[in-house]
Amino acid sequence: MTSVLPPQKESTSGTYTFSSRPRALPNRSKYRDPVAELQEEPTQYGNIMYDRRVIRGNTYAQHILPVSAQPDPIEIQRQQEVRRRAAAKKRAKDQLRPRTPEPVEGRKHIDVQTELYLEELSDRIVETDVECQTDAFLDKPPTPLFVPAKTGRDAVTQIEEGELFDFDIEVKPVLEVFIGKTIEQALLEVMEEEELANLRGQQRAFEELRNAELAEVQRLEEQERRHREEKERRMREQREVLRLEKETAEKIAARVFAKHYLADLIPSIYSNLRDNGYFYDPVERDIETNFLNWLVKDVENTLDDHVLGRKVLDMLIREVVEKRLDVFQQMEQQHNASA
Amino acid sequence: MAHTRISNKMPPHIEPARAPIAFGRRAIPKLNEELASEDLVTRQCALASLCDLVHDPERAYETIETGCLENLKRLLRDKDSVVRRKTTEVLYELSVHNVGRDAFLQNEVILSLAELLDEPVDICRVNMHKTLEMLSEFTPGAAGIVDAGLVPQLVLKLPSELVEIQEIILDTLHFCLRVNVSQALASGAISILKEKLLHNSVAIRSKAAQALMGICVPLEGKNEVCKQNIIPILVRLLKDRHPEVAAKAAGSLMIATITTQGKYAALKAMAIPPLLQLVSSPVTEVSLNAIKAITTLAEAPEGRQELLNHVAVLESKQDHSSEIIRRAAGTAVRVITWKP
């Protein structure tokens, strides 16, 4: 028998819907008719075992909701099939259920009570009305404190010392782990530091060596440089000295040579000049220039005159000879003509 | 709905300050994702766990392979100081491993680290400088730092920082100077180092002398050093009680006196007696550097004259157990007794 739900619950969860609404059972006859059974539709109530919303199967895997709110058409088909199959199975099962065989011809089955005490069967159930009402003028006495009756049996238990477990023995492994880990960590850190210290020591030693070598290298470089510079300087000086010496020697030689060279320069100059006629006798020069010019001119004139005379003579002779020739030729011709 | 969790209650969170580390291969990728989360507490816890894990070289390699460096670079600029501090610690642990250093150079982490130079929180700066120092210890790293132009900035930071950070900066500079000296010289490192030579702390004095040694290696460095009259200070440091300081001072002297100018400056500052004392010191570095300094001073005629009286001391060193000292002593004796 289900009771009516209190109204508060419905108001707080407004969106709550029942799959199978609780309801009061109707009055029905004690013994059901087998025919009326089949008319009941299964969808009036929901069986939790066949409710789709209840998760079944493994709880350790997650149930993924389908993406769309609409169920897949395939899903719908499958579910319809399942439903149909279930109905068919139920029907089959009903039919297989052994029933009382049909009555023989001419007879009819009738229900008979076989219990020890017979009961009167009737459709109407015996009811009695009972009423109760408190006295209007009497105050309700205070309800006594409700002490529920003692039910069950009293039992007592007590854990004595040392009964559950021995702390010292149990704590040992835990302690060992703790201490072990702590010491291990500490050891690791100490080793790390030691390693670092060793590395630093090595680094220091290396650095010393390096610095010393560096200083040595630089010192040697410097020394080398200084020596080289010194050498260069000295060599340069030497070269200077040599050069100066050579110059002086050359100068001396040049001087001597020049002196020697210029020694007979003056007489040779004089002789050269005289040879080129820079020292001349003026009378001679005068005679040479003026007198001889005039003489030569005169001679030329005279000779020209002579030549002219001769030319004239030649011309004369020529003319004569030509005339004679002409005459002779004429005579010849005359001779020839006359002969 | 079915779920993969077994019970409704989460397993007990043992250490609230650390994110729970997933098993095996999933550990580092999960922490990487948590690093990129918006929630501050998640990031801090993830960083704390990562810090513990990265000590192991395999985990360090994994961290780099899964590309945590991008997230870490971003977290360096985070507003919360705890996040920055933990990030710098993680980067320091990574830089201890070789793969880490290589990855730093490839992903240009140096520039991101350089942004933290002006960080207000001290511990972040300390870690950042320690990371830079670790990075500079190997040559490509030092070259990377020099290329990023960090050397002048470090030099400028030197006077104003805490003592321990100064030590770390001096170490970093020492390694960077092996690669390139001109940048440091240009930013006036020598005058700053001069002050540091007279600091109270032993470590700072010795590291400053070491850095000076690095600066003196090229010629310009040597000339600068002579010009700024550092040699008398170095000679004074030779008499220091602590052997490291004396060793490094002798080292600087041995390199600075290679030039003629340096030699005469040292001779003027009466460097020879303390150097002779240092030769007989039991510490290898001290006596080695002292012998070398004496060798350079013996190149000058005045030095040679004075040292001819003390040749015996050097000859006694020729039977020393260490080979380099024997060689150095032999060279020294040869140079002193050389006739042109």
TrEMBL record, chain A:
Q: Provide the residue span(s) of the region labelled Disordered.
A: 1-33, 85-104
Q: Which GO terms describe its cellular component?
A: cilium
Where found, per UniProt? Cytoplasm, Cytoskeleton, Flagellum axoneme
The highest taxon in the source lineage is Eukaryota
Residue ranges with Polar residues bias: 1-20
The UniProt regions of compositional bias labelled Basic and acidic residues, in chain numbering, are 93-104
For this entry, the protein name equals Radial spoke head 3
Q: Source gene?
A: RSPH3
